[in-house]
Amino acid sequence: MPLHFASLLLACLPLLALAQDDPVERLLAQMTLEEKIGQLSQLGIQTTPTGPVIDQGTQTQMPVTLVGSVLGASTAQQTRQLQEQVVNGSRLHIPLLFAYDVLHGFRTVFPVPLAQASAWDPDLAQRTARAAAVEATASGVHWTFAPMVDVARDPRWGRVVEGAGEDPFLGSALAAALVHGFQGAGAPDVSSMLATAKHFVAYGAAEGGRDYNVADLSERTLREVYLPPFQAAVAAGVDAIMPSFNEVAGIPMHRHTALLTGLLRKQWGFTGLLVSDFNAVWELGPQGIAATAADTARLAFTAGVDIEMASQSYRQHLPTLVRNGQVSRKSVDDAVRRVLTAKQRLGLFDDPYRYSDEARERASQLTPQHRALAREAAQKSIVLLKNSGTLLPLSKQPGKVLVVGSLASDASATIGPWAGAGRAEESVTVLQGLRNAVAPGTEIVYLPGASPSSPHIQDIKQVERTARESDLLIAVLGETAEQSGEAHSRAELGLPGGQNALLSTLLNTGKPLVIVLMNGRPLVLDESVQQAPALLETWFLGSETGNAVADVLFGDVNPSGKLPMTFPRHVGQIPIYYAHKNTGRPPSGDGSYASAYIDVPWPPLYPFGFGLSYTSFVYSSPRLSSPRLTSTQTLGVEVTVTNTGKRAGDEIVQLYLRDDVASVTRPVRRLRGFRRIHLAPGESRSVSFSLGQQDFALLDEHFSPKVEAGGFTVFVGPDSTTTNQAHFEVSDTRRLPIAGQSVPPALPNWAAERLSIICLQARNSEAT
Ligand code: NOJ
Question: Which GO molecular function annotations are given, in alphabetical order (predicted)?
Fold first, then answer.
C-alpha cells in the first residue's frame, strides 16, 4: 500500500510541476469558489461621462472585480480603465475579457451580413471580418459575438439581416470564412479576437417569424438545414458558441443538454466557450422550466452553458448548488479553465492591457484601406433586381435629377443594425454619393417626401411639381435601420410609412424612375414598385453606401450580387425557399388540385440566387466527367460561361443538385457549389466543380447517412431556377461513416446518431 501511494505520488510529480508552471492551473488552485464563479459571469456596462460603469439594467449588482468578462466597452480608454480597476482591485489580478457585438465592422462599417451574403464571396467576407477585428482589438475588444450563422427562411423575422440567408451551404461557407476572418492568425497576434457562432440553434425557425418565439421543427430539418453552419464554424475552429433564446421542440436551448453537451462538446469535439445570450439563463423561468433562480442556474450550467451573460443566477446560486452537491466542483473547474485558457491564449496574463492601445486605435480605424474595402464589399453586395430598357447605367450628365425618400439622406440607415462602433456621420449617404459622382453642374434636387417610419407625406405638391420638371427620378425607399434586427419582426413586408403614396405620385408623372431599396430583409414589392423600370436592392451597405450605390447606378461598377434569400410576392407565401420538397401534386403541374394558391401565384417574386448585370452571360450545357459513377468516385462538372455583352462583369456561377429518387424525400434541388468569376466582354471561361459522396449523401429514414444508388440531376446556371442540367447515375448504395467524435451514451437517439450529413453540407465552396 505505501509503495502504491509512493508510486502514485511519483507519477503525479511531473503533473504537479506542470500545474505550477501553467498559469491557468496555478490560478485555479488558488481561487475560491466565489472567484471561480465570477469568471463565469459576464456583465453589461454603460458608459457615463465619468467612465464606464456596470449596467444598472442588469439585476443585483456585483463588483466588476468579481466578474470574468464584460460586454459593451468599446474604446481603448474604457477597456484600459476597467482593466486597471480589475487587475489592481482583485485578489488574484485576473484580467477581464471584453466582449462586443462586432458583426459587420467596428468603426468602419461594412455591409450588413445579409448584404455580404449577396456577394457570394467568402474571401471578401473573411477580409471584412479581419478588418473589423483589427479595428476592434485596438480598442481593447477581445471577443465578438459573431458570426450569426442562423439559417433564416422567414423574412418577417427581423434578425434575417444579421445572417447569410436561407441556404445552409452558402451559410456554411460564410460561417467558416467569418470565423477565420475574426480569429485571424490567433495568438500572439494582437489583432486576433475570439469569434462566437450564434445562436445555437434553429433560432431562425421562430414560429410566425416573431423574435424569440418557439421553434418546433423536425429532426431532419434541424440536421439538414439549421445545424450545418454551426458545424462549419466548429470545423473552422470557432472559439465560442452562444445558445439561442428559443426552445426547440419543448427544450429551451439554454437547457438543451443533448445539443450543448452531447452534440457540441462530445460529438463535434467543441472545446471553446459556451456563453449564454443576454439574460437567457434567467429566462428559463418565464420559459416555464425553472421555478426559482437557483433552478435556472442549475439547469443552464449542467446543460453546458459556461458563462452567464447579464443575469446573475450563477453568481447568486452556483456556490450553494456546488456546496450542496447539485453541481459538481469539477464541472465548475472545467468551465473556469476554459475561460482562463482563453485569457491566457490572448496573452492577457503577460500583459492585461495589450489590446487596449490608443495609438493603434487611432492608426487602424477608418483608414483609407478599410474604406476602400467597405466600398468594394458594398459594390459586390448590390443586387440589380430589374432593369427594363436601357435606363441603367445612368449617364453622369443625366439632366435635372430629383432624389426623393428620407432614406436618401439617412446616414444611420446606411450603417444598419448592429453597427459596432460605427458613427452615422462618418458614413456616405446615397444623396452624398450621387452628388460625389455626377458631372460638375448637374442639378440634383433632394426632397424627403416620405419616410419609412411615418405615414405622413411631406410637401407632396412640391415633389410632384419638381418631378415633372426633372429628367430623372431616384427614389430611395425601404426600411430604417431600426425596422429590422433583434426584436424587430414585421408582419407586413411592404414599404412602410408613407412611401407607397410617394411612389404613386412619382409613377404618375411618367418620368424615368429608379428605385434604390435599402432594407434589412426581403420585402414584398407590390405592383407599384414593380412598375418602376429599374430596381436596385442595396440592403444596408455601411460606411461607403452612397459611393457604392453611385458606382453601380452610373456604371463604374457592374452589379453582380445575387439574392441569398427568396423574395415572396405575398406574406402569405412565407415560409418560401428554393430548396423545398416536392409534393405529389407539384404546383408546376397542370394547375388543378395542385399545391398552389387560388389567389396568388405560387412562385416567388425573385428566387434565391437571382441578380441581374449590365452585361449578359450565356452558359454551355454542363459537361460531366462520366454519366455513371460509383458512390466513392468524384464527379467533375464543367460549364463554359461567356460574357456576350459589351461590359466586363462578375458572374456568380451556381451549381445545384437533385437526388431524383431516394428512400426519403429530398429537396427539389440543393446548392452544392458556387464561384464568382470575372469576364471581359466576349470572354469565355470554363468553370469546374467536383461532387463527391458528401454531396450525394442523404440521411435515411433512421438518420443514417448514405449514398443511394440511382439518378441525380445537376443544374448549373445563374440562379436557383436554372434548367441548364445534366443527368448522372450512382451505381451502388453505401453507408457513410459517422461525423464528429465519440457518441455520448446519454444522448437521445436522434442526437446521438450519425450526423455526417451536417459535415457534408458544411463544405465550403473552395472544395467544389
Ligand atoms: C442579444 C442578442 O440575441 C445577441 O445576438 C447579442 O450578442 C447579445 N444580445 C449581446 O448584445
Answer: beta-glucosidase activity
